[in-house]
Specification:
heterodimer, A: 273 residues, alpha/beta, Rossmann fold, 6-stranded mixed β-sheet, 4-stranded antiparallel β-sheet, 11 helices, 36% helix, B: 222 residues, mainly alpha, 6 helices
């Protein structure tokens, strides 16, 4: 069957677009990850841009979280984990032997599924990172960083009069925004989010999603989510993982209205397995 | 197509498609009977067509309600989303086709001196092409077949050609027999309604194509 078709997104593939956009923030090429003998990720190549929020979706065990964790070498903490291929941050190989992993994780921040504030004051939660990385000259500047970070995380108005209260006294949604503020405080370039809303109610979830949209363009954001509605709402690019493979990567609007791959279609329409 | 993990979703889709099929069947019958009524002057048959129209309106409303409910409760994606959007639009268009048939039927009693009108011999042929388009596009819908849908779209040119021919024919008839202008004008509206039915069958075909492939057919003039 030969017929012309109009694509829903105007027919532009990511490859065709690549020339028009700026250089990728993160560029992964031929990445495979092993846990002992088991291959968890198989030959994944993907570019992540600051202009877009990138969502990773896929069934449990598909490797999306594993892959996310390779982007700031969180897998280093698992002794049996081994990474092949290259991952570049602004063209620099992050698995290079000279790479300072502490510095790397300041540049590539992470927010986890369960909010994990330090058992310290709200102020200290934010100030800790900038202080150990020497980002502030004196108390005044540190105060400014704390305020700016809380502003950007949309939490300032709610906590400005209680900065000395414990971070763990906040509600779940507030704690998660505190963790995002903490990630922002060290002025990262990339923020990785691993199911940041799965422990939150719909209102708190909406606030995080609004926040993600506001932070887009300032930081490259990669979000792993089990909620396809959430991926559809917050991201501009979506990658579908299945059994350690990157099955399809494209415009979010294409993936959810007219995916190219049957596996993607079966998964997002609830026909999987 | 593979089944959904949630079986009730498949049942909903089957029911939605069933409603469209029922609506389409009524539309086909209405076209066929309204044309027969206009040609033979059978006012009883015309009344039947008019009286059956509310049934089509009710079916369309049922499709609407069901589609909205499915969008809200199931948050469909990809081909499921396209299927439901297509059903929503197709139901509206098919109901409109029924309205045109009703409009044709209503003119049955307003035409005098049937034997004098040559276009009356052309109208059934034109109606047949349009009715076949409606029939075939509903078959394409049932089979999710974009090739048949495209073929239906191509046939619309035939209906348009009929309309032009009947239009010219009726206008010259009016010039020559001013006394029959009132009846001739009625027939002109009938031809116009059939022409619109062809256009609407084309719209349905485009939605069938969209539901199946996620794209509209492009190189056919719409």
């Amino acid at each position: 069957m030969v017929m012309e078709q109009t694509d829903l997104a105007g027919g532009k593939s990511l490859e065709a677009e690549a020339d028009a956009t700026s250089a990728p923030k993160i560029s992964a090429k031929g990445v495979s990850v092993f846990y002992g003998d088991k291959k968890a990720i198989d030959d994944v190549s993907i570019n992540v841009h600051t202009e877009h929020v990138t969502a990773f979706i896929g069934p449990s065990g598909c490797g999306k979280s594993t892959f996310l964790r390779t982007l700031n070498r969180m897998n280093d903490t698992i002794p049996s984990a081994r990474v092949e291929g290259t991952i570049e941050l602004d063209g620099e190989d992050i698995y290079h032997s000279g790479m300072d992993v502490v510095q790397l994780r300041a540049r590539v921040g992470m927010v986890f599924q369960k909010p994990n504030p330090f058992p310290k004051s709200i102020y200290e939660n934010i100030a800790y990172g900038p202080r150990i990385h020497g980002l502030a000259q004196g108390k005044n500047e540190l105060d400014q960083i704390v305020e700016r970070s809380l502003h950007r995380a949309g939490l300032w108005e709610e906590v400005k009069d209680r900065l000395e209260d414990s971070g763990t006294a906040l509600s779940g949604g507030q704690q998660q925004r505190l963790c995002i503020a903490r990630a922002i405080a060290v002025d990262p370039e990339v923020i990785l989010m691993d199911e940041p809303c799965s422990a939150l109610d719909p209102i708190a979830t909406a606030k995080i999603e609004e926040l993600i949209d506001e932070l887009r363009g300032r930081y490259a954001i990669v979000i792993v989510t089990h909620s396809m509605q959430q991926a559809a709402r917050v991201s501009q690019r979506t990658a579908f993982f299945h059994l350690g493979n990157l099955v399809e990567y494209g415009h979010t609007s294409d993936i959810f209205t007219n995916p190219r791959e049957k596996k993607t279609q079966d998964y997002i329409t609830g026909r999987y397995g | 197509m593979a089944e959904h993990t949630v079986k009730a979703f498949d049942e909903d889709i089957t029911r939605l498609r069933g409603l469209i099929a029922e609506l389409g069947g009524l539309a086909e019958l209405a076209i066929q009977q309204s044309l027969e009524a206009i040609v033979t002057g059978d006012e009883e048959l015309a009344r039947e067509v008019v009286e059956r129209d509310p049934k089509m309106d009710a079916l369309e409303a049922e499709v609407d309600a069901m589609a909205v409910r499915m969008l809200a409760l199931r948050a469909p994606m990809a081909d499921d989303l396209r299927e439901i959007i297509a059903a929503l639009k197709i139901a509206g268009v098919v109901e409109r086709i029924g309205d045109y048939a009703k409009n044709i039927a209503k003119r049955t009693g307003r035409i005098e001196g049937r034997a004098r009108f040559e276009p009356l011999t052309l109208l059934p042929a034109m109606g047949e092409v349009a009715a076949e388009m409606v029939h075939d596009v509903l078959t394409a819908y049932a089979a999710r077949d974009p090739i048949v849908a495209r073929e239906v779209i191509e046939r619309d040119a035939k209906v348009d050609a009929f309309y032009d021919s009947i239009f010219r024919n009726l206008v010259s008839h009016m010039v020559e027999n001013p006394a029959t202008i009132s009846s001739a004008a009625q027939l002109l509206f009938v031809a116009r309604n059939i022409e619109r039915i062809g256009d609407h069958a084309t719209n349905v075909a485009e939605m069938v194509h969209f539901a199946a492939l996620g794209s509209y057919p492009t190189d056919v003039e719409r």
